[in-house]
C-alpha cells in the first residue's frame, strides 16, 4: 500500500499521457479502491495529500484530473462502490449527468475492466502496475469475460489510441507522432 504523498510516484509517462488527453479535449476522472483507509493504514489527510501531489505534478504539464472517486472500504465491508462492483462508476455518471455507455475506461486490473463493463464503458487494460504480471492465460480468461477489451502496453499507448481514433473520426488522416516518436 502507498500510504503517503512521499511514497506516491507516478508511473513513467502516465502524467504526460493524462496531459495529452486533456490537451486533446478529454476529461479525466479517477475511480480507485482505497481499502488502506478502511484497514487503518492511512487516513483521508494522507489520501488528499497524494491527490494534491498528483494534481500539482499534472498542472506543471498543463494537465488535470477532473475528479477522483474512491472506495475507502475493505472487501469485508460488502459495499457497492468497491470495484469490480459498479458503484464508483454509477457515482461518476450521476455527478457528471451522463450515461457512461461507450465512455472509454482504462485500468490495470481485471476488476477495473469488469466494473467498467458493468455500466457499459468501453474497457481498456494497460499492462503496467498490477496487470504487468498477468500471464497469457490470465489475459485470455479476461478477454473471455470482457469480449470488447482492448489491451495497451501503458497509459501513453492508451492516450495515443484515443487521440488517433478521434483525429481519424474527424477526417484527419495525416500521420500522427505518438509518444514514442513513431508516425502512425
Shape: globular
Radius of gyration: 17 Å
Number of strands: 5
The proportion of residues in beta strands is: 5-15%
Name the average pLDDT.
93
Topology as H/E string? HEHHEHEHEHEH
Main β-sheet description: 3 strands, parallel
Task: State the separation between the terminal residues, measured CA to CA.
Answer: 38 Å
Query: What portion of residues is helical?
Result: 40-55%
Oligomer: single chain
Uncertain regions spanning at least 5 consecutive residues:
180-184
Count of helix runs: 7
Structural class: alpha/beta
Polypeptide structure, described:
The protein has helices spanning 14-23, 35-38, 44-60, 87-96, 110-118, 136-145, 155-169; strands spanning 29-33, 67-71, 104-107, 122-126, 150-152. It has 184 residues and is of the alpha/beta class. It is 41% helix and 12% strand. The chain is built from 7 helices and 5 strands. The chain is globular. The protein starts with 13 loop residues before the first helix and ends in a 15-residue tail after the last helix.
Write the layout of secondary structure elements.
Elements: H1 14-23, E1 29-33, H2 35-38, H3 44-60, E2 67-71, H4 87-96, E3 104-107, H5 110-118, E4 122-126, H6 136-145, E5 150-152, H7 155-169
Parallel strand pairs: 1-2, 3-4, 4-5
Helix pairs in contact: 1-3, 1-7
Question: What keyword list fits this structure?
Answer:
184 residues, alpha/beta, three-stranded parallel sheet, two-stranded parallel ribbon, 5 strands, disordered C terminus
Concise account of the structure shown:
The protein has 184 residues and is of the alpha/beta class. It has seven helices and five strands; from the N terminus they run H-E-H-H-E-H-E-H-E-H-E-H.
Amino acid at each position: 500500500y502507498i500510504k503517503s504523498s512521499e511514497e506516491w510516484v507516478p508511473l513513467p509517462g502516465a502524467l504526460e499521457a493524462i496531459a495529452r488527453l486533456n490537451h486533446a479535449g478529454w476529461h479525466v476522472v479517477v475511480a480507485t479502491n482505497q481499502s488502506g483507509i478502511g484497514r487503518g493504514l492511512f487516513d483521508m489527510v494522507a489520501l488528499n495529500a497524494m491527490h494534491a501531489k498528483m494534481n500539482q505534478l499534472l498542472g506543471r504539464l498543463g494537465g488535470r484530473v477532473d475528479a477522483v472517486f474512491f472506495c475507502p472500504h475493505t472487501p469485508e465491508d460488502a459495499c457497492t462502490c468497491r470495484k469490480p462492483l459498479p458503484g464508483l462508476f454509477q457515482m461518476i455518471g450521476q455527478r457528471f449527468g451522463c450515461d457512461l455507455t461507450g465512455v472509454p475506461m482504462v485500468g490495470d486490473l481485471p476488476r477495473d475492466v469488469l466494473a467498467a463493463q458493468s455500466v457499459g464503458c468501453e474497457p481498456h487494460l494497460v499492462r503496467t502496475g498490477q496487470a504487468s504480471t498477468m500471464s497469457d492465460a490470465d489475459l485470455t480468461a479476461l478477454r473471455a469475460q470482457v469480449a470488447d477489451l482492448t489491451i495497451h502496453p501503458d497509459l501513453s499507448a492508451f492516450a495515443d489510441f484515443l487521440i488517433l481514433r478521434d483525429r481519424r473520426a474527424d477526417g484527419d488522416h495525416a500521420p500522427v507522432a505518438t509518444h514514442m516518436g513513431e508516425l502512425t
